[in-house]
Description:
Blueprint: H1 17-29, H2 32-64, H3 69-118, H4 121-125, H5 129-141, H6 143-171, H7 173-179, H8 183-220, H9 222-227, H10 231-256, H11 259-281, H12 289-330, E1 352-360, E2 368-377, E3 382-386, H13 393-400, E4 408-413, E5 416-417, H14 423-427, E6 430-433, E7 442-443, H15 444-449, H16 457-466, H17 470-474, E8 483-484, H18 492-504, E9 510-514, H19 522-535, E10 540-544, E11 556-561, E12 564-569, H20 571-577, H21 580-590
Parallel strand pairs: 3-10, 3-11, 6-9, 9-10
Antiparallel strand pairs: 1-2, 1-4, 4-5, 7-8, 11-12
Helix pairs in contact: 1-12, 2-3, 2-6, 2-12, 3-5, 3-6, 5-8, 5-12, 6-7, 6-12, 7-11, 8-10, 8-11, 8-12, 11-12, 16-18, 20-21
Amino acid sequence: MAVNSYKQDELQREVPKRVTLIRLYRYLFTYKKDIILVLGIMAVTVAIALLNPLIIERAVNVHVANRNVEGLLKLAAVALTLNVIWLVGVKIRMVIMARVSNQIVLKIREELYVHIQTLGLQFFDSRPTGKILARVIGDVNSLKDMMADSVTTLIPDAVTVAAVIAIMVVKSPWLSLAALATLPVLGVGMYVIMVRGHRRWQVVRQKNSNINAYVHENFSGIRVVQSFSAEQESSSAFDTVLEEHQNAFIRAVQLADAFGPLIDVTWGLGGFLLYYIGIRILHMGSMDVGTFLAFATYLSMFWSPIRNLANLYNRIVNNISSAERIFDILDTEPELKDTEEAYELPSIEGRVEFDHVTFAYPDEPDRDVIQDINFDIKPGETIALVGPTGAGKTTIINLISRFYDAKTGQIRIDGHPVGAVTLHSLRSQMGIMTQENFLFSGTVRENISYGKLNATEEEIVWAAKAVGAHDFIMKLEKGYDTELQGSGSLSVGQRQLLAFARTLVSQPRILILDEATSSIDTHTELMVQRGIAALLVGRTSFVIAHRLSTIKKADRIFVVDHKAILEEGTHEELLKKKGQYYNLYQAQFKNL
């Protein structure tokens, strides 16, 4: 199966930026009342900002020119009141948009997390966990400021620019034309930066994912790193990943930083044209001082929001790559999902049938893992699967649980095709324990009850006793309330016993044990076997074990190799055949 490692940049579908932005801004529409309130506040604050130059014009041309102190003070009081209202309005809209943007980020992250849980094993097998974390955490976080600024910066600044242009044109069309003559230069420059900058920020996000993938992988395997004294090699590889990210970031920032000089040049050139044309060509030196000050203020009010809009545009170019990566996963269809006709699987007895089943991984459809497998398991039977690594044993149990779909053939549970029932109703009646004895952070009780969230205290203790975990749990500092932190708080065998209790507390109708006793010592194994013997009664069970001593009492043993079931029978029957099982058994006991 192809795997995207931390050394590889992730492939991503190309989607028009306009489509991504529209999809992203749809989240804002779910907060219509808040947005309408913010827009109303912004209408007031923008109006106040546009009135300020006119107040200055009146103050100079009327009150100062006529030495009307009383009128000037009244006008100053009006200006002060309006600007206090402006300040309060700005603060309120910032608080509202901060809350809205945080809620949107929370909603996107929840949607992403829920969707990822619906994706099949192929999705997780094909990429490092760190790259998934990068999208759920880093990419989602980067959207927060962008969502808030899109309302609090884009709308008021765009309105301000349009209003300023209108006022300037009314006051002096020719001066306005002179001041705005450099806008085409700004537009062309921004377009060039947009096209090239977007791709560079995509690369930055990919390199950031590589860092997350490497850190997660390295710290997950820190015991191996320290065991082989490979810290220096690990640090060297990390430096390489960091350098790639740094180089990509520098290239993106170099282009993004061109916005500032571009705006400064066009602003300065526009100002020069304003004064040169106004004074030297249009001979407007006799214009009222207040009017000239108002026009100059409006010119500043025009370019300030232009700078803000350019910076926002720069952030959008940066963060839209994050949105693309998020939607890329949200648009990833689950390899396995309920059909429209899927129905709830009723309470089962545990009959399992494989009818001419062939399977190949989706990314290697021509390489069959198993071919034309047939068997019929009666309710309550215990089936052991043995064979060399890679023979297809785990594939068989994954197909029973419908972690994958068969290439051809059909799998039935109590006569119900597994593809015809809902995944939840199927898997909720199965107990699956693999050789990966993962435990969650939390108490011993919480870890066991994860198998059945509404499990009673009696059920939790019963499951622990059944697998022989109760005695060591009671010796812990707080018994079942002991907090588990990290992999070092319990031995490997103890962790496996807790994982086994977690599986058994759900009282599954079909029990699957994939190398479930691989990490348990001989003494502990004997104790677990006694619990297993009682729990297997009346329950269909599939057991994969390399230690053949653990499966002697199985009702049937399947020897899986060469993509097929080569032998089938009880322990004694297979030994009498002196076939592959006999050879495996003899080879194992010769090494004891």
